[in-house]
Amino acid sequence: MSTVDSAWITDRLREVPGVLTAFVVSDDGLLAEEAPGLSRDAADPWAAAASGINAAAQQMVQCSGGSLSTRTRTIIDDGHSSHQIVQRAGEHTTIVVHVSYAADMGIVSTTLEGIVQRLGSALGTGQRST
């Protein structure tokens, strides 16, 4: 799937205070690796949802005349409020980060953007044939 080992990416993100979990998914909603802190049964729907969020964001960008959506943030009211960030990170690849409401979103965003910039096009999954 991925052309680089993605474990260091999510390990680095999980070191940021307030990050609850982070994992890499393909555009078709499949996990590229295990999602630490989540069972496979819990992580699979998140991966599928992230794929859907990306698809919806891309459609909205096209409708407005843009070319690419790179990040979408969702605020989740789970009794404590948290954020989910869906960040495009390579060809057909997305990083999903679940963050507590108390986290410093500036630090989370800066860390995430730094990782994506360092990766360039190295992180990516090939498009699957149908």
UniProtKB/TrEMBL annotation:
Boundaries of every Roadblock/LAMTOR2 domain copy: 10-97
One Pfam match, given by its short name, reads Robl_LC7
Q: Which SUPFAM superfamilies match?
A: Roadblock/LC7 domain
Which PANTHER family has this protein been placed in?
SERINE PROTEASE INHIBITOR RV3364C
The identity of this protein, by name, is: Roadblock/LC7 domain-containing protein
Organism, per UniProt?
Saccharopolyspora cebuensis
